[in-house]
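Students often ask why inverse folding is considered easier than folding. One informal answer: many sequences map to the same fold, so there is more than one right answer. In these notes we will look at a single instance of the problem. The structure comes first.
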C-alpha cells in the first residue's frame, strides 16, 4: 500500500469514528486532483476544538502517539494558543489544527466535499490555505 493509500485510510477511519473534520493542505489537493502524483509527507486536517477529545481517543485507540508541540497529550494539558495536535502512527503523521484565525472551521466542516469517503475542505479555501502556508508548493502543484 503506498503512502497516499495509508494516509487516506487513516482519514477514512477518523471519519468513520464520527470525528468532525475537514482535510486541508496537500492531502486535500491530492484527493481533489489524484492525477497530480504529489508525494505526501503527512496529512493535515482542521477540526472544531470540541472534537479534540474524540480525535485523541481515536488516535490512541489505533496505537497513535499524540503530542502538542512535542509534549505528550494529557487531558489536563492547556492547549490554548497551541493551534494543533500531532498524531503519529509509525512513519505516518496527522496534524490536526483546532484554531485558525483565517477560517471558520465549523463552516468548512459543514461545507466539506466528500471525496473517496473523506471530508475535504471546499476548493476555494483549500487553495487559499495552501497558498498562505506554502506558496511555492501551491504554484508547483
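Output (designed amino acids):
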Amino acid at each position: 500500500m503506498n503512502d497516499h493509500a495509508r494516509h487516506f485510510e487513516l482519514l477514512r477511519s477518523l471519519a468513520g469514528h464520527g470525528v468532525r473534520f475537514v482535510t486541508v493542505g496537500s492531502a486535500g489537493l491530492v484527493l481533489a486532483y489524484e492525477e497530480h502524483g504529489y508525494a505526501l509527507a503527512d496529512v493535515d486536517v482542521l477540526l472544531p476544538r470540541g472534537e479534540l477529545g474524540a480525535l485523541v481517543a481515536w488516535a490512541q485507540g489505533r496505537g497513535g502517539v499524540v503530542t502538542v508541540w512535542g509534549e505528550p497529550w494529557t487531558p489536563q494539558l492547556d492547549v490554548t494558543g497551541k493551534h494543533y495536535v500531532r498524531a503519529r502512527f509509525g512513519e505516518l503523521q496527522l496534524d490536526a489544527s483546532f484554531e485558525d484565525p483565517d477560517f471558520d472551521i465549523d463552516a468548512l466542516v459543514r461545507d466539506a466535499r466528500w471525496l473517496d469517503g473523506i471530508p475535504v475542505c471546499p476548493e476555494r479555501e483549500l487553495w487559499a490555505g495552501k497558498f498562505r502556508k506554502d506558496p511555492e508548493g501551491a504554484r508547483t502543484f
